[in-house]
Amino acid sequence: MKKANILVIDDEENIRELLRELLEDENFSVSTASSGEEGIEIAKERAFDVVITDLKMPGMSGIEVIRKFKEKNSNTTVIVITGYPTIESAVEAMKEGAYDYILKPFNLDHIKLVVRKAMERQNLLREAIVDPLTEVYNLRFFHETLSREISRAERYSIPLSLLMIDVDDFKKYNDSFGHQAGNTLLKGLAKIFIDSVRKSDMVFRYGGEEFCTLLPHTGKGAVEVARRILYLVRKNLPVTVSIGISTFPEDAKSKEELIEKADIALYHAKKIGKNCVCLFSSGEVKCEK
Q1: What CA–CA distance (Å, rounded) separates 165 from 258?
Q2: What are the pLDDT digits (tens) for 207-232?
């Protein structure tokens, strides 16, 4: 079973190392950061199930860390570290979205208990948002995430691209090789999609043999991602895919319009012979094999 990932953020090295040793003995994969700023940078390259952060640090405070993680991914469970005199800060942190807190001086058994409960919460969240077959995010979480990412793109004036991906002639493949082979194929496709994008991008199963990926901070670069997916599918699997792309705010001004434009582009990709990429751009669809 894959180890759960925990990030420990604290400006005191002895605390970071104590928590690392304790949690690694509990079979968790542990990364550490000496500041909130460093922790945020590490999290851009790797997803974490649980973040444990001190509240009082030079520079970015623990409260700011919570806000950053909640903005990036509302499903990361955050635990804060505080001392007895600052218990009010822990309450404030929980109002900001922290799951729980651990007190200094440490009670090691209590830390283990809090982390185990946080992991139980993560497992329940995972069941609610992950497709059980392919282990990418499900449709419900796609709509939730897209609404959040649209709001962020609008607030910070940054592009957001959507790739709609459909497996070509999947029914024919299923009829020829059986549903078990079809399921294995879908798992292989999901892995290729995950391997083709950045850690900050997200892959979803939209339904049946259709997937989509969300690419924050990405405009024209979405075409390169789509080309990479086409190439890797052609090289590694006995099927091809068709891809439709749209970008906010260039092509769409709302969540619904972004999906609609990507769907139109995908329809064109199917119509001109499949196994290609079509981009909705400046009111028209442009395609390439």
Answers
A1: 14
A2: 999 999 999 999 989 999 999 999 99
